Amino acid sequence: MPEPVVVGVGPLTPDQVLRVARSGAPVLLADEAVSVMASTRAHVEALARDAGPVYGVSTGFGALATRHIPPELRAQLQRSLIRSHAAGCGPEVEREVVRAMMLLRLSTLATGRTGVRPAVAGAYAALVSAGITPVVPEFGSLGCSGDLAPLAHVALAVTGEGLVRDAAGTLVPAADALAAAGIVPVVLEEKEGLALINGTDGMLGMLLLACDDLHRLLPLADITAAMSVEGLLGTDRVFAPDLQALRPHRGQATAAANMVRLLAGSEIVASHATPDCPLVQDAYSLRCAPQVAGAARDTLAHAEWVAACELASAIDNPVVTLDGRIESNGNFHGAPVAYVLDFLSIVVADVAGMSERRTDRFLDAARSHGLPPFLAYDPGVDSGHMIAQYTQAAIVSELKRLASPASVDSIPSSAMQEDHVAMGWSAARKLRRSIDGMTRVLAIEALTAARGLDLRAPLRPSPATGAVRDAIRRRVGGPGSDRFLAPEIGAVVELAASGALLRSAESVIGELR
């Protein structure tokens, strides 16, 4: 069992979110958080006894906020809110996303700014620790007033309704799963239903997961680019530090430094690094790889800055202030997160697009500098990697469509009370699909480049790229007559997704940034 993550009044770290979401870590509530929640809950209960209307406590919601709710109907008000807002549909959202979302909502509850009872936060912690995952459908959030429908499906499970997956992944009624884990369903009181659904936790959780994925995939993009530069008889001189310093973007310098290290000691590169080499300069997809992968890193850094701001936030509406007021606000609007989710989708599409262009160069005898057409063993009889590039092209085309921003769209809702929405949840969902596509595109480049390096024998690749080639060869055979190609692509996709290709290079030259 992984070490538990302690949730207090301060912000979580990205690593804590990843440990809960991806490694199954349990969570504990800090005593300080319990104390703060109890203190602010007293303010909510005092206002609930007041005759004046307080949004979320004694009124309806959204466009129905003008309706005053008498005390005897307020428990029903909160229960009805969760039931009505749990209106999603479509396929289930992934377990890691739901766990991240639950943890992030718990973190906001623990700040005391939402005014819920400690018992409500304790129920969230108990579900996460027991490995119970509410079933959350994919469609339903507009990314404004928070991820309302997804968070409502989570809250519904906490009250003992709806469906969940237990720790074994079995689909069961929430009431049964809670009973088996010894968790008492929550009966919501004033303001608590609203506090459970008014946050950007779903889109933020997916942003943090995407950032983690890109920290693995961007160094892999440097690896596959280096393999292609090598296999296509490109030069490493363009990656020299003094040339990169002429345009001092941090990400560019990092990517170029990675490629210098990856290509060091290559017999293939050295074989044509002579004054009589007829190649004047390489194509953009080779020469400009650090500029593109570097800009991707700088975009990722900005996205992580936004994520850090969100992790330090207490998002609810209304919110309980330090002096005990309950105030409406607009902090639930998902625009800051939606923008960077869309930006990262653009980045992913462009990095993958450059990868596909390098693969295509390997397959064209007019541009591959001596390699057989399509890297085929017997061209004409064999087609080699011809259709592997088709697969890449199909994925890249899809990535370009997914790069169209969701955040520029807005469909007014709630009788025009919510007349501008962020669509950040949609931006996050398409980014997850984009990252999966990028992984597949880079894997196909790695598979093709490994074949190209083999065909340069007896010249040997660099120790680092050779280690990546060898990792592929342990799963996939070398050049020869055509074989069933889909399983070979699938094997290398697994190596790329698991980080095995990255680790193979780092085992030789150390960590790549």
TrEMBL record:
It is an enzyme of class 4 (lyase). Its main location: cytoplasm. It catalyses: L-histidine = trans-urocanate + NH4(+). Pathway: Amino-acid degradation; L-histidine degradation into L-glutamate; N-formimidoyl-L-glutamate from L-histidine: step 1/3. Its EC number is 4.3.1.3. The keyword Lipoprotein does not apply. GO terms for molecular function: histidine ammonia-lyase activity. Pfam families: Lyase_aromatic. Keywords: Histidine metabolism, Lyase. The keyword ATP-binding does not apply. Gene3D superfamilies: Fumarase/aspartase (Central domain), Fumarase/aspartase (N-terminal domain). This is Histidine ammonia-lyase. It is found in: Cytoplasm. Belongs to the PAL/histidase family.
